Request: fold
Amino acid sequence: MAAVDRTFGGVVAIVCRIIYLVGHLMMVSTIPRRVPWCAVLMAVGACAPTAGDLVQRLEDRDPLTRIRAITQITRARQTDLIPKLVDRLEDEDSAVRFAAILALEDLTGSRRGYGYSAPKSERAKAVAAWREFALRQDAAATEEAGSSP
Reply:
């Protein structure tokens, strides 16, 4: 299932990039009536950041940028980025940790004993459980990808 999510997310990102480029090309054309359509196409095309963009945003210095990236990952159902969300469970900002555990719960249906405001030692135990889960999920996705034609 993770392989399907990854493929679908990649296709959506490519389609959005194409739409963005078409909008940009229309904007540079000499026909002024096309400008409103260009803006719409460019806005739609910019809607889906790539997984690489999201990973970069997850590591941004600004906590709000990290939270927005977490929200986008959740909305796009990008389960292949679960390990990156697990990394955010150790974020220095409690709001980022809170957003990360809500995202993980939404994507997996579990919190695995994690409390974003718990002492660091307690959070570390739950993070270890999350890392183990992410490794098992990655192994299952690799096995699934290897067995499909």
About this structure: The helical segments are 2-27, 35-45, 51-58, 63-75, 82-88, 94-108, 120-147. The chain has seven helices and no strands. Residues 1-7 have pLDDT under 50 and may be disordered.
